[in-house]
Each structure stands twice: as C-alpha cells, then as structure tokens.
Write a sequence for this structure.
C-alpha cells in the first residue's frame, strides 16, 4: 500500500497519479499497488515533482514498523523519529 499526501502537485503528475490511485481528498492519494509498482511510482514522484510540492509518501514494507516515510520539499506536517520510528507531528507541545 502507498499513501501520498502533497501540498500541491503539478497537473500532469496529478493526472498520472489517478491511473494507479484513488484520490479521496485533493492531493491525497491511496493505492494498494504491488511493491515493484509502488517503488516505480515513488521514484516517478521524486523525479517529476518540484520541491514546493511538499510531498509525504507512506510506503508499506515487509519489516517493522511496516512502513517507511519519504519526503520531498517542505510538507505542512513535520516528520520526526523516536528510537528509529518515523512519526508525523500533529501538534507541538511546548
């Protein structure tokens, strides 16, 4: 499974993503493509999108914790790691 959340995607990339993914909200894509196709899609996104797209990609992997997170640019949510586990920061605690 692959989930892609973006601030903004170029129209050509967004149209191509709709071939493999369901878009439940604008610039949020979900798909259950196989691992080899998922790798190709992730590489396509990282090569075809500008930094200001602000992309977070969640990709299923067969080892714990079961997913990996890749980013391009500055997404609206911040990524952090706690003891090697990648997490998305929802709210900063001061």
């Amino acid at each position: 499974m692959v989930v892609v959340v973006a601030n903004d995607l170029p129209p050509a990339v967004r149209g191509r993503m709709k071939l493999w993914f369901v878009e439940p909200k604008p610039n949020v894509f979900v798909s259950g493509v196989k691992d080899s196709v998922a790798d190709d899609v992730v590489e396509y996104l990282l090569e075809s999108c500008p930094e200001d797209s602000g992309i977070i990609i969640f990709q299923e992997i067969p080892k714990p914790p079961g997913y990996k997170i890749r980013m391009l640019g500055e997404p609206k949510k911040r990524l952090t790691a706690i003891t090697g586990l990648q997490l998305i920061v929802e709210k900063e605690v001061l």
In short: The two ends are 34 Å apart (CA to CA).
